[in-house]
Amino acid sequence: MKIPSINPERFLEDFNALAQIGATGDGGVNRPAFSEAHLAARKWFGERAAEAGLEVQVDGAGNHSAILRQPGASKSLLLGSHLDSVPNGGHFDGALGVVSALEVLRTIEETGLELPVNLEAIDFTDEESSLIQFMGSYALLGLLTPAILRSPHGGRAALLEGLSHAGLTEDGLLSSRRNPDTIAGYLELHIEQGPKLESAGMQIGIVTGIVGISSFRISFYGRADHSGTTPMEARADAGLGASSFVIASREIVMNQFPDCVANVGNMEFRPGVFNVVPKQVDVSLEIRSMDCERLNALKSALMDQAQHDAEQFDLDLEVLTLGGSEPASMSSRAQTAIRSSAEALGLRHMSISSGAGHDAQLLSRITSTGMIFVPSIGGVSHSPVEFTEWEDCVNGAKVLLGAALHLVEQE
Amino acid sequence: MKIPSINPERFLEDFNALAQIGATGDGGVNRPAFSEAHLAARKWFGERAAEAGLEVQVDGAGNHSAILRQPGASKSLLLGSHLDSVPNGGHFDGALGVVSALEVLRTIEETGLELPVNLEAIDFTDEESSLIQFMGSYALLGLLTPAILRSPHGGRAALLEGLSHAGLTEDGLLSSRRNPDTIAGYLELHIEQGPKLESAGMQIGIVTGIVGISSFRISFYGRADHSGTTPMEARADAGLGASSFVIASREIVMNQFPDCVANVGNMEFRPGVFNVVPKQVDVSLEIRSMDCERLNALKSALMDQAQHDAEQFDLDLEVLTLGGSEPASMSSRAQTAIRSSAEALGLRHMSISSGAGHDAQLLSRITSTGMIFVPSIGGVSHSPVEFTEWEDCVNGAKVLLGAALHLVEQE
Could you confirm whether domain B8-211+327-409 is CATH 1.20.81.30? Predict the structure, then answer.
């Protein structure tokens, strides 16, 4: 099969236009799910797809699709990623995968190539979990429940406000399941967000699997006392338990779980004022591992540590498991398709695991799923200075196109 | 001189009515300066004073006064405290001093006693420093400046909103100075907010001096990285510096500065989400000492520690001194008046220093100033469970009345 080539100028023009939406002026973008900027990016995507003559669909979870229909096809091969960002994040994460998917569809549309399946460029809702982690792909799998909607990551009020802002409803979220038999596979191009490809001098990463993640809210409870009149030794200061846990949890991960990572991304103090001893501190903890058993072992070790820290400072402890995801394997069919595509283009490639979560980990439960990584300079991501060389982005889009055609050939 | 007696029933009725304003349902009140509840409490105070036939005045800083005028008097003896509370604080702190001052004025008014000075029950603005620490007494001394108003404790936007809410202006704040020659003295009844009186079995504390306070915002700056793909050892996690500082600063105070106290009342993480390594953590630190040199020595030791913590975790550091107050001595005249009053009533009393800041520390710069403490059960304060036996509150009000008359006798 002769593989057609994408249009790098058009691809760049779109990529740059998207980077302006929600731009923070320091090279980054601020597009949390359902923010003004996020909704503007989705609108832009729909318009660009429509201009290209693609069919545009939005499902009940807000997932945006541009579809290149094939006569008589009953299945769709999905290519995509997400247009939302972490607060003050970079302009490659997610965006590259959506814009490259759009470019692949336009390229194939122009060649007039007839395929046995539809091609669909998809932008999933809230990959970065401002409200519910992987909201869009969870909805597509039919895995959202009323219970999940009652206690979202970002708070119930924020969820309702966001849905209303985006013109969505809870009923829509709960009824967006797609029949897996209509899905031929899923491919996602993404920046690595880590340093391995750059260090190894590789151009393409073929993802073998995606890390499992668990997140928790760990609340330390003490007593609100006057900060001037209460002797130091008579205090039950929730900040001490929380701070001690932050330091100790890092030691545990580095010394006993070097194959895992952990992050305390936030602490919230109550009442949070200068002259009152903190009576409550809520710690936002996230842990990741490629292995389910190790993830559970790390969780146990950290919960024991939190209990120890609470007792040491005369505090009470409450742990809320907020959510997470199991480690996921990419399909060998998809990995083979990506490898064949990279080799046909003469690109240096390696197998790699993903330390970040992606919608692909959910799609992998129902369809043949693969991910393509391109190098992140310095491994930096979720930051305005996140950067990937444009040549690597183009390579990634070319590999995506080739891999899609390789996968489709087997239908 | 025969000392008249206050009306304990009326005093209790007022105290309970005030405790309902901003009540949080758990025994506490939530009346931060310029909140709805705080303004309602001030309105209530003005109405109760007017009902008693007292003259009501509000100055440009929002300080509320009830005045019992004496024919020909050119000076006023101030009795008072504050009606604002910390967020979710107790219903004794501040309130006791204002309600008892009102009761003292009513009692003296009823006796028809002629005094050489006016008596003024005063409620100072923002003692608890939601916006500017001791805003009201600073304004009365003429010590507020445009620079202070530009960077208030609670943020510029909150200050402007609060002033607007209360019908006040910055010009008003800056022009509320009172001529010290018109002030005959200042007496304040307050709960101890510490455990010393209760432990010693004393009924009345005669305050000798008030602690000096310094507050700081200590910012640790790292780098926002993806929490899944960035190896633990490659991170610049601002939360580690901040947490390490919290633990170490407590050790420093307890081991090297047992005569001082410190509090980290808040930490703010940025961007503050689960999946991004914190790039910035702002730590709210407050330190207190009865001795100016010790306060400075503690400050130096803690700033050295913060620098050490920043370096240890590859972070940058920025320290902003937010404000504070020098240690203050109570006048011997006022202490003598309080002691005479307590002895005449046969109450067990002791001299005591104040670990909490009070408006009295500012008034002490311009006039003969004294404070009366009554016992706090368990030493608890700035909390809904803050409690003082009603009998002790009545004793305090009686001592306040007696001390006021003793001070006035010398005019």
Answer: no
